[in-house]
Each structure stands twice: as structure tokens, then as C-alpha cells.
């Protein structure tokens, strides 16, 4: 499949305008302008449909997908630790605080080597594009040079990315070999990174954006957190951090501040419309109200929550309360780079929360009623929900949105999807199979702003 700027794509598409709602359009016409933005979406029966189709054919601008191929919005991954990619699938048998000190901090310290950083980040971005991740929200490391290299690679490869140089300066929680020397140097480095990204040649359309990134409250001194709050007010940049992730982390903040992560972050000026809170498993009802009031968003990371969070995030309850929620792989706390795997984990964990897991308890005492989600909710948080959290025109196939999309091929070589004739299954059935069974093998093409950023060769 080719680049689509200035073209009209005829395809069957799926998108999720709201939690639990799916729009499926057979033979849709998507007109993409020269900047990679969707100029129009026409459906069979629309007044302009036949004219749009005829004009595209006459001007040789029409591109048609093949049989058993479907177009979906690109996946929006709200929480990735870029430097942890080499440990994907490793060290998942210990508590979070041990995992950090024994495995993760020593690995992240290696990114003082710019050559190592480039080698890892090149492979990481290629892997995510192959998995259909069109927008990635990255934690980098404390190293300015290495994190700038990540920004350069995302721009070179065309991935939409929000990237943060990690700030962490508390000597009681961070090892001497891997932390900012003090609050002042952490703040200076964050400011330098913001300025470097904003000045990148070729980034005038802000494909890559800087993010203010306190790792989490336990790793930062109060002076640093206050300074980052002031920098947030000054720059209006996005903010990302971990929030009420595990019993240990949640308890640490309660002991330190006498309040929850959400309340502390708000007092510090770090809870804004552009804040992404990773995990948030232990947020209270009051926290939910505060997060909604501030307009902040949550990166739900169901796969890593299994290993490190000690709880299941109440996704359905949060969605019903109107919180803005997207999905994250949490590489490498989550042992998969595929957001589709995270979709499936979100569905499974919600069922476990509803049904309960202790067979010694009576059925009515085991779980939390009305907690389950299905493939429709999972698809929403992987696409539209993530775009909403970031306040960017992504995650949907609508006029005015960026054409960030993936082409799913049900009959790709080695596909795990059982493909029946169209009169045997509905489009709803087809999307459910994609969400539940598709792998990177099925992702034939990834487009970002209408440009091809990943493509598998034809069989």
C-alpha cells in the first residue's frame, strides 16, 4: 500500500466514537489532503458519494483495499518506558520496588552511552510501528542526549510521539549512579529538552512533542516537584507520571504527604488538562472527581498491572464517571509491545474484577458487580480514548483528524484469524476477531499523517 496524501481511500473501516460504541462503514471513501489530514469521509448513500468516487477514479487518485482488509485508526499507546525495551519479558517475578532497583535502574543508566541509546531506540520505534502504534507517549531516561536521540528517531521514522526526559533526584529512592544531581539540574535538563524538541528542524507541525516527566512522587524531592509544576504552568506542556500504581507506591505518597497521588499532584500544579496519569489503580472516588474536574487522563496498563500493581483498575466505573482514559503497554512492566495484547488484557482483567478470583468465597462475594468491558470498550481506549486524553485530533477516522491508521489483513500469511465468507459473519464479528486475535502479522500497513511508516511485503 502506498502513501495516501492527496488520495482517496476506498475501504471498510471501523472506529469507536464513544466507549462501547462502534461505527463500521463498508466501502467508505476517505479523502486525505496533502498534509495527511482527513478532508472528507463519505459513506454509500451520501449525496456526494458517487461523485467523489467517480472523480477519484478519473484523476487516478483512488486507492482501494483488498478483500478481507480493513482500516482502523492507529493505536495510541499512552505509556511506554523506551529505555526498558531490552528487558521486555524479563524480571517479572519480583515486587515493583525490587524490579526498579535491581533491574531497571541499572539498565536505564546505560543510556549515558549515546550509541547504545540509538541502537535500542531504532529497534523500539520500528517494532511499535509494525504493531500499529501510530502515537507513542514515551518516558526516556535522565540523559538529555539519549532522550533527544529518541525524539530524532521518532521524527525520522514519522512516528507521532510525546517524549519526556525523566526527572528523579531523591537520593533516598534513586541510586547514586542513576539520578539527577539535584532539583536545579533536573529542572534545567527538562527545560533544555523542551527547547530542543521545539526547535527540531522538520518538526514544525509538532509531530514530536516534549512532556514534563517526574518519574513518580517517590523518586522526586518536593523542590523538584514544585519546580516542575511551575514549569508546567509556564510552558503548558503535557505532563506524564505514575499515579497510585501499587500498594507500595500509593502508601509511600500517603505517608509522605498525607494525601493521595492525585491530590498531591494537584497541589503541586501537575494535574492539568494535559496530564497523563499511568495506572491509577488505587484512586479513590474523590480522586476520580478531582481528575475529571481537572480534565486529566489515565493511561490504563492492564498487562503490567498484573505483575506490579496488586490490583485491577476499575475501568468501567471510571468510564461511566466520564474520566478520559486510554491504553498503555507500559513497556517493560508489561511484557508485550502490542497494544492489541493490552486490549485483550483489559478485557480479561475486567472480567476477573467482576467475577472475582477466590473460589472459597460465595459467588456474590467474589467480585465487583458491573465491572466487565468487552472488545468495543477496549478498541475505544486503544484509539479514540487515547486521542482524547492527549487532546490531539487522532484516534478516529473523521474530517479534520490526522490520517493515522492501520490496514488489517485477515488473510495475511500465518494469520491466527479464522476468516469466513462475508455472509456468514457481521462486521461486528469481524472487529471482535481483530481485537481478540490479530497480531503484527495482520498489520499490513501503518500510516501516520497519510505517510507509510511500516509496510509488509505482499505474499
What does this structure look like?
- By secondary structure, the chain is an alpha/beta fold.
- It has 2 domains: 8-73 and 396-455, Roll (Urease, subunit C, domain 1), CATH 2.30.40.10; 75-390, TIM Barrel, CATH 3.20.20.
- The protein contains 16 helices and 17 strands.
- Strands 6, 7, 8, 9, 10, 11, 12, 13 and 14 form a 9-stranded parallel β-sheet that branches.
Which second-level CATH architecture of the largest domain applies? Alpha-Beta Barrel
What structural class do helix, strand and pairing data support?
Answer: alpha/beta
How many strand elements? 17
Highest-level CATH class of the largest domain: Alpha Beta
Unreliable spans are: none
Estimate what percentage of residues fall within beta strands. 15-25%
Q: Rg, please?
A: 22 Å
**Bulk shape:** globular
Q: Helix segment count?
A: 16
How far apart, in Å, are the first and last alpha carbons?
Answer: 13 Å
The CATH topology of the largest domain turns out to be TIM Barrel
Amino acid at each position: 500500500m502506498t502513501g495516501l496524501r492527496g488520495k482517496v481511500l476506498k475501504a471498510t473501516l471501523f472506529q469507536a466514537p464513544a466507549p462501547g460504541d462502534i461505527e463500521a462503514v463498508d466501502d467508505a471513501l476517505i479523502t486525505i489532503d496533502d498534509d495527511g489530514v482527513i478532508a472528507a469521509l463519505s459513506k454509500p448513500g451520501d449525496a456526494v458519494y458517487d461523485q467523489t468516487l467517480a472523480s477519484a477514479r478519473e484523476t487516478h487518485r483512488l486507492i482501494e483495499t483488498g478483500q478481507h482488509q480493513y482500516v482502523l485508526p492507529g493505536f495510541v499507546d499512552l505509556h511506554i518506558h523506551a529505555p526498558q525495551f531490552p528487558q521486555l519479558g524479563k524480571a517479572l517475578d519480583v515486587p515493583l520496588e525490587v524490579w526498579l532497583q535491581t533491574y531497571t535502574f541499572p539498565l536505564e543508566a546505560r543510556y549515558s552511552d549515546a550509541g547504545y541509546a540509538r541502537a535500542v531506540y531504532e529497534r523500539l520505534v520500528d517494532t511499535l510501528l509494525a504493531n500499529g502504534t501510530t502515537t507513542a507517549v514515551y518516558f526516556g531516561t535522565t540523559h538529555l542526549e539519549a532522550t533527544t536521540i529518541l525524539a530524532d528517531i521518532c521524527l525520522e521514522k514519522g512516528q507521532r510521539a510525546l517524549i519526556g526526559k525523566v526527572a528523579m533526584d531523591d537520593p533516598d529512592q534513586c541510586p547514586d549512579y542513576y539520578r539527577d544531581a539535584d532539583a536545579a539540574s533536573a529542572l534545567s535538563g527538562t527545560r533544555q529538552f523542551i527547547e530542543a524538541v521545539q526547535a527540531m528542524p522538520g518538526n514544525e507541525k509538532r509531530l514530536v512533542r516534549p512532556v514534563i516527566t517526574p518519574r513518580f512522587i517517590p523518586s522526586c524531592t518536593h523542590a523538584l516537584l514544585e519546580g516542575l509544576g511551575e514549569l508546567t504552568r509556564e510552558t503548558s506542556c503535557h505532563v506524564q507520571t505514575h499515579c497510585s500504581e501499587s500498594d507500595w507506591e500509593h502508601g509511600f505518597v500517603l505517608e509522605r504527604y498525607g494525601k493521595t497521588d492525585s491530590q498531591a499532584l494537584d497541589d503541586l500544579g501537575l494535574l492539568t488538562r494535559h496530564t497523563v496519569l499511568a495506572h491509577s489503580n488505587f484512586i479513590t472516588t474523590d480522586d476520580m472527581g478531582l481528575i475529571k474536574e481537572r480534565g486529566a487522563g489515565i493511561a490504563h496498563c492492564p498487562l503490567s498491572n498484573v505483575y506490579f500493581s496488586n490490583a485491577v483498575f476499575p475501568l468501567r466505573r471510571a468510564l461511566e464517571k466520564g474520566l478520559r482514559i486510554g491504553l498503555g503497554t507500559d513497556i517493560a512492566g508489561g511484557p508485550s509491545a502490542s497494544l492489541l495484547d493490552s486490549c485483550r488484557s483489559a478485557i480479561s482483567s475486567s472480567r476477573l474484577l467482576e467475577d472475582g478470583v477466590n473460589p472459597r468465597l460465595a459467588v456474590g462475594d467474589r467480585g465487583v458487580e458491573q465491572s466487565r468491558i468487552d472488545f468495543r470498550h477496549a478498541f475505544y481506549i486503544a484509539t479514540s480514548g487515547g486521542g482524547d486524553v492527549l487532546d490531539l485530533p487522532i484516534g478516529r477516522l473523521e474530517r479534520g483528524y490526522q490520517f493515522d491508521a492501520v490496514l488489517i489483513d485477515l488473510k495475511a500469511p500465518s494469520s491466527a484469524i479464522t476468516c469466513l465468507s462475508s455472509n456468514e459473519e457481521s462486521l461486528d464479528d469481524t472487529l471482535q476477531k481483530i481485537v481478540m486475535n490479530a497480531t503484527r502479522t495482520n498489520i499490513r500497513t501503518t500510516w501516520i499523517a497519510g505517510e507509510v511508516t511500516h509496510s509488509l511485503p505482499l505474499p
